[in-house]
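ok new one. same drill as before - structure tokens go in, u give me an amino acid for every spot. 122 of them this time. try not to just spam alanines like last time pls lmao
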């Protein structure tokens, strides 16, 4: 196999974005696995892979990735929101609420605020 360079990682990342947009999340995960093998600290690649896992209904993997992201980037509102959506989709809605509330507190976007259910007792 040819040597991997920073340029090939960028190409793989951009191709993974395109695959996810084209509804091929499993193809995106394969490319991102290669990027993250060499750059495990890459938040952008990890977030894209988490989104691809979610899109392909690999909820345990998505949860693991989103949890790692919120641990490393506690101010990442989208990651908190996406972790909440992942938990919700996995049938763990009560566990999702704190992540939705953190997302809304960090970024009061209407979709984050609505998901946070501030007016409810949860």
């Amino acid at each position: 196999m040819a040597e991997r360079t920073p340029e090939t990682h960028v190409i793989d990342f951009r191709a993974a974005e395109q695959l996810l947009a084209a509804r091929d999340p499993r193809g995106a995960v394969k490319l991102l696995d290669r990027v993250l093998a060499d750059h495990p600290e890459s938040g952008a690649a990890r977030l894209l892979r988490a989104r691809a896992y979610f899109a392909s209904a690999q909820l345990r993997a998505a949860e693991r990735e989103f949890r790692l992201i919120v641990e490393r980037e506690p101010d990442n509102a989208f990651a908190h929101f996406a972790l909440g959506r992942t938990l919700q989709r996995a049938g763990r809605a009560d566990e999702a609420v704190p992540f939705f509330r953190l997302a809304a507190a960090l970024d009061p976007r209407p979709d984050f605020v609505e998901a946070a259910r501030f007016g409810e007792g949860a």
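The CA atoms of residues 35 and 54 lie 18 Å apart. and btw The radius of gyration is 15 Å.
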